[in-house]
Amino acid sequence: xxxxxxxxxxxxxxxxxxxxxxxxxxxxxxxxxxxxxxxxxxxxxxxxxxxxxxxxxxxxxxxxxxxxxxxxxxxxxxxxxxxxxxxxxxxxxxxxxxxxxxxxxxxxxxxxxxxxxxxxxxxxxxxxxxxxxxxxxxxxxxxxxxxxxxxxxxxxxxxxxxxxxxxxxxxxxxxxxxxxxxxxxxxxxxxxxxxxxxxxxxxxxx
Length: 206
What we know:
The protein is an all-alpha fold.
């Protein structure tokens, strides 16, 4: 966990809670972390920031001022998009499958991935709790899964190829930001357009 560059206070609190690896930390939801002794909003914000923007071989001092200002805005856009994706998936899986969303709406491969990562599947998890345990690329797998696409998502997303391409592009920008690779002005504009389009496309229809 030292590679994240956490403050000594955050590192000590996590170590005391038995969270000793980046993998363990990444599997925790915000609610789970806040329920951990001595973790408040300040430490939670630090953890989330470090997980999205880990230390890089590129020092900030080598970035231009414009790049330094652009990066946190790119992070905020990605977080906004990811929250919208989770809300959209949760709403539609619950609407179609109800309490059977996990067994009917999540493929065995994705379930196995979460079990391997967290050592368990909790019956009281919400869909969003579950989705927080996935990699960003897994959202596309859930949406485009053959058992889900036609009955659950195709009624709101008309173009399968377009949503697949949008999610793939957004994931590429997410990896860039996560590895502290500065986005160019053109890339930032493309990311902004992608997120705006995605939010419109995945708007909840009650």
